[in-house]
Design a protein that fits this description.
The complex is a heterodimer of chains A (about 120) and B (about 110).
Chain A lengths: L2 E4 L3 E5 L4 E3 L1 E4 L5 E7 L5 E7 L5 E3 L5 E5 L4 E6 L8 E8 L9 E3 L3 E6 L1
Parallel strand pairs in A: 2-12
Antiparallel strand pairs in A: 1-4, 3-9, 5-6, 5-10, 7-8, 8-9, 10-11, 10-12
Chain B lengths: L3 E4 L2 E4 L5 E7 L5 E7 L5 E9 L2 E4 L6 E3 L9 E3 L8 E8 L9 E2 L3 E5 L1
Parallel strand pairs in B: 2-11
Antiparallel strand pairs in B: 1-3, 3-8, 4-5, 4-9, 5-6, 7-8, 9-10, 9-11
Classes of the chains: A mainly beta (about 120), B mainly beta (about 110).
Chain lengths: ~120, ~110
């Protein structure tokens, strides 16, 4: 079985300061990991994904995440927050494809607030 | 433009009524999924389908039904047996066999039971 824990339900930062959204996972296999962003009453948009290539993954809008197997973490960072970054962020782990069940397990989400 | 469409955006239902949510994709993806989202929670999987005419229950399938008669379409019916159907419903699709299993999401349908 696999699971995802997002360590903060809410994060508030000032515009122009760094963003850190924390995620820990557990998985029996070599996982694929994702970060998705959701703006209010919208669908989810993929920010970035890790699939066993480079451990430092760069995504859209200046976000990046580092896969640390020893710490079972996949934290999301951005050097400088923008007002438009205010949204809900989900860390997600994917079943290994050869289990036959190809679905995602979602964390409970972190709401990012950006103060002017 | 390729993508996933869901309709309607908002849906109101009286208790005891069945209601069907539409999901269509033109991405030529084999796999499609339905998720439910409640306030302050992540997404929970209701049903998924990896190929036409085949689908499997997810984690919270009770009170829901689906069909997959066409590759492009994966409608979800919320039946009267679903005890607490008010939620935000999201449809997604992915290319079966991709090891990264990236899913693409529709804009969602917000269902409210009156």
């Amino acid at each position: 079985a696999q699971s995802v824990t997002q360590l903060d339900s809410h994060v508030s930062v000032s515009e122009g300061t760094p963003v850190l959204l924390r995620c820990n996972y557990s998985s029996s296999y070599s996982p694929s990991l994702f970060w998705y962003v959701q703006h209010p009453n919208k669908g989810l948009q993929l920010l970035l994904k890790y699939t066993s290539a480079a451990t430092l993954v760069k995504g859209i809008n200046g976000f990046e995440a580092e896969f640390k197997k020893s710490e079972t973490s996949f934290h999301l960072t951005k050097p400088s927050a923008h007002m438009s970054d205010a949204a809900e962020y989900f860390c997600v782990v994917s079943d290994r494809v050869d289990t036959g069940r190809r679905a995602l397990t979602f964390g409970s989400g972190t709401r990012l607030q950006v103060q002017p | 433009d390729g993508g996933i469409t869901q309709s309607p955006k908002y849906l109101f239902r009286k208790e005891g009524q069945n209601v069907t949510l539409s999901c269509e994709q033109n991405l030529n993806h084999d796999a499609m999924y339905w998720y439910r989202q409640d306030p302050g929670q992540g997404l929970r999987l209701i049903y998924y389908s990896q190929i036409v005419n085949d689908f499997q229950k997810g984690d919270i399938a009770e009170g829901y039904s689906v069909s997959r008669e066409k590759k492009e379409s994966f409608p979800l019916t919320v039946t009267s047996a679903q005890k607490n159907p008010t939620a935000f419903y999201l449809c997604a699709s992915s290319i079966t066999g991709t090891s990264g299993n990236e899913q693409f999401f529709g804009p969602g349908t917000r269902l409210t039971v009156l």
